[in-house]
Fold these 4 entries.
Entry 1:
Amino acid sequence: MPGISTKPYLLRAIYEWCTDNGFTPYLSVKVSGAVQVPMEFVRKGEIVLNVAFSATSGLKMDNDAVTFKARFGGVSRDIYVPVANVQAIFASENGQGMVFDEVEVDDSPAAEVLVEPAKPVLGLASVSVREEGPAADSDKTENPEKNQKKSEKPSLKVIK
């Protein structure tokens, strides 16, 4: 008689080990129709999710799925990952964790209902970081106002 898979128990154990040691736990997920994640961040059919307490809200890791809310590009999203789709859990600081056997997922069209379509994030523009070197030195003589802002951290600006 087959019992419950050990995978969800191992996920919870590695998650607890990461948090107890001050590490940031990440999940590597094979994306299929049953997974609800922001599709704009999926690369080659996979996504890596930060599941640290500080990055999630309402994290629940049960025997069937990992669910939580997280912000992507400033927008809160509901995340749903069936345990079967989890490929690995690891600490970002040192890469220690556990990789699971190859993931078999359901790619049937009926499962597509849970996948959120990609939504572009509007109104944000990135600010480039100044590089040090000969080109940066030439800016010091040309524009003294620019030099006063050098110590500020890069940030995002809202463009209307």
Entry 2:
Amino acid sequence: MSEATERIQKWIGQIEESRAVEWERLPEIYLYMDQVLTYMNKQLCLYERDEGTNLLTSSMINNYVKDGVLPRPEQKKYSRDHLAILTVICMLKQVLSIQDISSLVKTLLLNASQNEMYDRFCEDQTTAMKEVCERIRSTSQQSEADLTRLAIELSIEANARRTAAERILSELAKNSEPRAEKEKK
């Protein structure tokens, strides 16, 4: 087994052992920006491309607040609501635009509470990662060429799913525009 394959196997093991922090286990106390960054980067480290590549910075958080994707902090302090939305943003921003993520979160919150939406998201994320890890584990028993083929397959699937998600969100947005105009009148 090559060193690369061993590192991949180690990563798979870490992913399989990890679980997104459930709503009830998110910090109840308010956190300042540096505490949010430390907490979030620790939670998301397994999803980084390489170790030490943080998925979240203070500039990103400030931009999410400025763009209305993330609610404004209360006296520069962030709550568990903020942490839940930041988790969703960080996991989806590689796939969807920030505007699509914002629309998606707002729509999901119309039909569920913040904690229900977050817990459902975490459950779906865990299921998807388990499925991918199973495919990687079985392929890594073969050859590096097979792993390369799996990487392209996963990339193609990711692109197809992103395209489908974007189309769905686009069509739903078009559908809600006439309703919003009727409500204004």
Entry 3:
Amino acid sequence: MERPVARMVNVIRGLDGARAASEAARLPASLAGCPVHDLKERLRDAGLRPTRQRVALGWLLFGRGDRHLAAETLFEEAQRARVPVSLATVYNTLNQFTQAGLLREIAVDGGRTYFDTNTSDHHHFFVEGGDTLVDIPGHDLAVNNLPEPPEGMEIARVEVVVRLRRKAS
């Protein structure tokens, strides 16, 4: 099991030379189902060039299923995975992924922004003090009586963040 993971890390890091050629020779002729290949296709389909940094950050973002994280968290994960990126690159990549529709941006407390890998219609619980977002399925909350948008505008999306805190003992 460790060998495929090492192979993916080599592909993500874009190893050059004989070692990369040796690793590439071990890949099957059909890459369908290969997580890195699928991620590269997903980026291309979204209109983004699959650079090494985008693929590496995308792997960290999407490789664990649906999740919410701040840019700083992704940067820390990249550092632990030895992906050579700056915090500015992480912010730029998250913004590019959001503009391409691969992520949803959720602003909490004005200065705190989270990125959600689940782009379906849903809302969130925000756990105060824990800085944690938890999904609320879209069908579990109805938003009624929305105001009429200004002339020439339409409502793109409604996002509800329900703030939670621990009960006082």
Entry 4:
Amino acid sequence: MRRTHLSRAALAVCPALAAGLLLSAAPARADGQLPLTAVSDRQTTGRGGEFTLTLTLTNPYDTPIQFVYQSVQPSYRTSQQQGLKFSATACGTQTNGCSDNVHGGIARYDVPLAPGAGSSFTVTYTVAPDSACGPDVRIDLYSYLYYEYKGGLASNSGILGIAGPQVAC
């Protein structure tokens, strides 16, 4: 009979224990504010022209940022524009490079990034000479950023829209 009481007690305690473990294992999250700025050097470019994005990550925490993943991609509206042709042609300052991989990763920051420090990098895009152009043709981008700090115990991520140039004829 004693065994039955122990089995019933275990059945009652197991769900509570599992819920407690799951809740305590949730990763720490930072506020939704991304410490990232992105600026295009031109509001307008022509066919065969180029523009450069400067992206700056600043560490707002009291511990180093030790891991960063960042990608830059065309916005949905940009990807849907018929005949618009452009590509990244140069990359990097103050990072250990850029990469084109299946996930669109572009920045590989030198880490750790000390508290209060900032790091910038540039990506230059060239518009094809036979690209679509006109007052409604824009190259808008977005950046997905994920980073970890506090020894990997905390992370933050989000998307930043980047207004790029209009492609003039």
